[in-house]
Design goal:
Number of helices: 10
Strand content: 15-25%
GO molecular function: GDP-L-fucose synthase activity
Helix content: 40-55%
Protein name: GDP-L-fucose synthase
Order of helices and strands: EHEHEHHEHEEHEEEHEEHEHH
CATH class: Alpha Beta
Number of domains: 1
Oligomer: single chain
CATH topology: Rossmann fold
Largest sheet: 6 strands, parallel
Pfam family, one: Epimerase
Organism: Gemmobacter aquatilis
Number of strands: 12
Length: 304
């Protein structure tokens, strides 16, 4: 049996959707079922359910502004959740843990063709350091348990994810859900869309359905670290252009005095490709589907 932590989040809900058509038995606990911040409750839940595979997607996440404003909360909550889940998984002798990492753990000095063996080399970008370090600590725990207790793991180093069931927070959210919400609001109200920066910063964006497929693929393929990305980078301006065309909103204001984070990030995906994994969705398809989902589900979407 599988267990999916963070099952109501963007990535977790996408994993659940894939499992529902797979024939695999699984549990998808919510916070009402178990508080992963509570070590005793987490341990008791794992001992009661005895999962064989843990798909660990639970995390406290923010975008650029949220990472800068709440660094202590980001580090504390993620560190506690990760430690509790992995400790409980070890206690019940699971067959494998596949855990969601983040490219925020990579050092700021790296910008192009970043490889998995560079994950612990140097300091993460200041804007994301608390979240990045919490994920690094999770990798250290996974690796130490593998070396001492033979607990197999895959550490999925995710690029910028987006998709249905994201947290569409225009103030503290990630760039894609924030922009989706802003364009939808502009479409409804006639207000302009305000975008941080110049639009020149480039990012690699991965649709949540493909991210979920990759996580499940790693259950049976591979040990250790894997970059989960598209190997395609686009400027933020292109993302804005896509949403402008989809929504019909043309009034866009670039707030060039606002921070943009790192100007370039691209990732080497050869290790993942060597396992036979292939993407199914283009950026254009994924953005269109995400915007359509938001429109269909508004106002009943997560905003905070």
């Amino acid at each position: 049996m599988y267990i999916v932590t963070g099952s109501t989040g963007m990535l977790g809900s996408a994993v659940v959707a894939k499992l529902q058509t797979s024939g695999i038995s699984f549990l998808a606990p919510t916070r009402k079922d178990v508080d992963l911040m509570d070590p005793q409750a987490t341990m008791e839940y794992f001992k009661e359910t005895r999962p064989k595979v843990v798909l660990h997607t639970a995390a406290k996440v923010h975008g650029l502004m949220g990472n800068q404003k709440f660094p202590g909360d980001m580090f504390d909550e993620n560190l506690r959740i990760n430690f509790n889940v992995i400790s409980a998984a070890k206690a019940v002798n699971v067959a494998k843990i596949v855990a969601a990492g983040t490219v925020a753990g990579y050092a700021a000095k790296f910008s192009e063709d970043i490889r998995e063996d560079q994950y612990l080399d140097g300091e993460p970008h200041a804007a994301e350091s608390s979240y990045g370090h919490a994920k690094r600590a999770m990798l250290a725990q996974l690796d130490s348990y593998y070396r001492q207790f033979d607990l197999p793991y895959a550490f999925a180093i995710y690029t910028n994810l987006y998709g249905p069931n994201d947290r569409f927070d225009t103030q503290y959210g990630h760039v894609v859900p924030s922009l989706v919400a802003k364009f939808h609001q502009a479409m409804r109200t006639g207000e302009p869309v305000r975008v941080w920066g110049t639009g020149k910063a480039t990012r690699d964006f991965l649709y949540s359905a493909d991210a979920a497929r990759a996580l499940l693929h790693l259950v049976d393929h591979g040990q250790g670290r894997f970059n989960i990305a598209t190997a395609r980078t686009v400027p933020i301006a292109y993302l804005v252009q896509l949403l402008s065309e989809i929504s019909g909103v043309r009034n866009i204001i670039w707030e060039t005095e606002k921070p943009e984070g790192q100007m370039m990030r691209s990732y080497n995906t050869e290790r993942l490709a060597d396992t036979g994994f292939q993407l199914k969705h283009s950026l254009e398809e994924g953005i269109a589907q995400t915007y359509a989902w938001y429109c269909e589900n508004y106002p009943d979407v997560r905003c905070h």
